[in-house]
Amino acid sequence: MNKKAPENQLSLLTYFEGSQVLFQGNDLTSAQYEMSEVQKNIFYMVQSQLGADDAPDKQYTLRVRDIMGLKGNTNMYTSLREATKTMMQKILTIKLKDGYLQVAPFSSVLYNTKEGTLSIRIDPSLRPYLFNLKTRFTTFGHTEALTLSGKYTKRIYEMLSQWKHMKLMKITVRELKTRLALYDPETDQEQYPSWDGFRRRVLLQAIEEINEKTDLHVKMYPEREGRKVAILKWTIAITRTHAISPTPSDLQIRLTTEFGLRPDQAERITEQYDVPFIYKKLYEIRLSNNKETIANIGAYTATVFNVK
What is the topology classification, in CATH, of domain 148-243? Predict the structure, then answer.
């Protein structure tokens, strides 16, 4: 964690040994929606700017040349405007305990053609799945996510990242297609109805690109129910890590020496939270402390982790 973000940005684009990691709630990872490659990249770039103390109506400003540069074309205002326009019409369906949430990711997009920027507001209903995540969240590489070219590959990479520490993901074909908006449960309409078409056009491309460009190496094992492939079992190996992998005692030493906690508080934190979450919070605390807004670092850190 020796790479600093801009001082005026308390960013959840957390830096782990020079790598950039994005966080999102698991419910968002498994939501039902479809975005194009460009739209997903815009969403990732907005995610990279999210701050723990952001105002609900904050605008996140992106440079047009950065977005279009990912595709090697820096002069595509028309297609970009169409992408953001239709993105505000995209509906994410997120499963809740007692129903569903249907929400568009962005509530407004303001273009400044003189500056070559666009400023985006997140829909307030989506914010709980992106901010102040304490449990049930997914971490994945920001650069890797941007580099992946297939719109389905990006989503599958996120899903596999959710299960990477378990080294295994099992999902039904129907559930995966539903998440990718290739199957509509209400109308029973389905794209790629044949297994071979789905395997070749979506799955094999995703596996090849994920293994080539990301921190994961995956293998897929189809399982049949009768004559039909119904379940996909994915084995997941982490080929490089974004996060430091300290022992609990190493983390506890850091929590006591750098962040002023008692040994018993540090021990409870390492027992209650996983490493990515701890480092995310320590990064935020460090940036806040750089602004000299924290009077008592130990008390503040204890409050952040809810330990007394």
Answer: Arc Repressor Mutant, subunit A (1.10.10)
| Cβ 138 vs Cβ 29: under 8 Å | yes
Q: How far apart are CA 39 and CA 70, in angstroms?
A: 12
Is pLDDT at 20 greater than 50 in this prediction? yes
pLDDT one-digit tens code per residue, 137-178: 888 988 899 999 989 999 999 999 999 989 999 999 999 999
Residues 270 and 107: their CA atoms lie apart, in Å, by 38
How far apart are alpha carbons 128 and 61 in whole angstroms? Answer: 20
pTM: predicted TM-score of the whole model, two decimal places: 0.78
| Spatial separation of the C-alpha atoms in residues 123 and 46, rounded to whole Å | 12
Closest CA to 283 of 26, 24, 60, 51: 51
Query: Is residue 304 within 8 Å of 285, Cβ to Cβ?
Result: yes
- Distance between CA atoms of 127 and 24, rounded to whole angstroms? 10
Neighbours of 31 (CB within 10 A): 23
Rg of the chain in Å (alpha carbons):
20
What is the domain partition of the chain in residue ranges?
148-243, 248-304
Specify whether the CB–CB gap between 193 and 200 falls below 8 A.
no
Tokens of 197: 């078409």
Instruction: Please state at what angle helix 37-47 crosses helix 151-162, rounded to 10 degrees.
Output: 40
What is the identity of the amino acid at 180? L
Structure tokens at 41: 């990249």
Q: What is the mean pLDDT of residues 275-285?
A: 76
CB-CB contact of 262 with 308 (8 Å): no
- Cβ contacts of 88 within 8 Å, gap of 6 or more: 104, 105, 106, 107, 108, 109
Q: How far apart are the first and last CA of the chain?
A: 26
Q: Which amino acid is at 242?
A: H
Backbone angles phi, psi at 110, to 5 degrees: -110, 120
Q: Can you tell me which residue has the tokens 């990732």?
A: 44
* Integer Cα distance of 278 and 165 in angstroms: 16
